Amino acid sequence: MTEFPVRHFLSDDAVAHIGEGLLSRTLPREEWTHEAHLAATTYLTLRRLDIDLDTELPGIISRYNESVGGVNDDTQGYHDTITRAFLRGVRLFLDEADTRRPIHELVNELLHSPMGKRDWPLRFWSKDRLMSVEARRKWIEPDLQDMP
Questions:
Q1: Among residues 8, 4, 28, 10, which one has the least CA distance to residue 18?
Q2: Taking a C-beta distance cutoff of 8 angstroms, is the pair 108, 9 a contact?
Q3: What are the b/e assignments for 2-34, b being 16+ CB within 10 Å?
Q4: Residue 130 and residue 122: Cα distance in Å, rounded?
Q5: Is there a contact between 97 and 106 (Cβ–Cβ < 8 Å)?
Q6: What is the biggest distance separating any 2 CA atoms in the chain, rounded to whole angstroms?
Q7: Tens digit of pLDDT for each residue in 93-123?
Q8: What's the superkingdom here (predicted)?
Q9: pTM of the model
Q10: Per-residue pLDDT band at 131 (split at 50, 70, 90)
C-alpha cells in the first residue's frame, strides 16, 4: 500500500473539532481524512460516553457522508467492516495508553501505531474479502487471522 504522510493534530481543540463536526455534520468534506476518522473515533470513545459507538457509529458516519454530498452504496461511502475493525483498533490502543494525556497526543501516537496505519485491516482480511460488497454492508469475520 502507498505510504501517505501522517497529518498530525496540534491541539485537543483540533480533535474536538473533528469529533463534534462529524456529529453535527458541519465538518468540511475535505477534512474527513483517514486521520480524522481515527481522531473522531478516539474523541467519541473518550469524550462522548453518551454515545454507544457499537450501535450508533454506522449511522453517524453514513448521515455525515450524505450531508456532504456523499453516497453510501455498494462501492463508496460507509464501510461497516473497516469501521468496526478500526473501532476495535482504537480501543486496543487506548487500553494500553495513558488516557490522562492530552487527546491530540494520543491521536498522534495512535496514527503511528500499527492500529493507526491505513492498511491495518489487511493484516486480518484478504483485500478481496475486505473490499467486498458484503464487508461494506455488514461485519464479516477476518479470513487471514483473528483480530486481537
A1: 28
A2: yes
A3: eeeeeeebeebeebbbbbbbbbeeebeeeebee
A4: 8
A5: yes
A6: 40
A7: 999 999 999 999 999 999 999 999 999 999 9
A8: Bacteria
A9: 0.94
A10: very high
